[in-house]
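Structure request: BZIP domain-containing protein, Plasmodiophora brassicae.
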Amino acid sequence: MDARPSATSSTAPSFADEGVYPPPIISFPQGDVDGELLSLFVMASGPDTPPGYSEPVPWPETAPSSMTSAEPSPALLPRPPVDATSKGAARLARKAELARASRLRKKTYVSNLEASVANLKAAVEELQTRLAKRYPKFPGSSQSPPAPVPESSSSPAIINDEPRKVRRKMSSSSSPGVPVDSSLDPPARQRLSAVLHALDMADLCLAPPLQVKFALWSLDQPDAFYDRPGLWLSLLQTEIGMSPEQMETLRSRRMSVRAERRNLAHASLMMKEIRDCAVDFVQVLHRETSRIQALLLPDQIARLHAWVKSTDWSIDVLPDQYEVPTRQDG
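Returned structure:
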């Protein structure tokens, strides 16, 4: 209840008697007034202490626990000073660890190399042992080097003949046995090259493979060759794995194989003769053609070419061995 003095009242009201105090003239914000200042203000306000008034609690010197943080951040904590001795020790420890790791890697690498060398040595020794078992006179053994295999007297020239490439080179224009006319013009040389190429292809198709050549050669040997320990027995038994019955059957075919081998050698010789004949034929053909053209004029040669091309029976001149067919009157 707010009791204010009336304007018509002659006497001033007493606030102390009624228990009502005037409001403070100066107000302080909360938290800016300490206990001593508040006591002085109360004492200046009046001699009596208002009812319900209690002494102010002094402001704590430290903040309450609820206003403080639990743990400070490790990054904010001051670090102890690091001296040069501890830095050097850490650097040496790190270098020692790296050196140990490097030595371990080198040791592992060397161990792997030694294992690889041991495996290779074992493989080489195994290979030498196998070769020594198959071929008793292997160069790696303590025995003398193997002697050359004797050839039979009936071996034809096809087996011991020089390589086909060398034969082709020898049968070219520089061959002393089959001279080629140096006056051959480009068309004649082109014709000769085409003929020789066709003969080489025919010879290549007729020639047996290397395996067949070796089989024919091995079956055209004397009887002592098959009972001798070495190439023949090692090949059939170890490499191919043939049984004794198969080996005996193969040996029984020697006579027929020898006859066929002779036929192959004869065919090879015939191909060589055909090649020589082809070279001679081209040379003679070119020589005779040159003689005929030397007798004719250029326009006469052109007329001859046109007449031969337009005449049908002139195409049959080559099979009839260049003889003019006789006309039969019927």
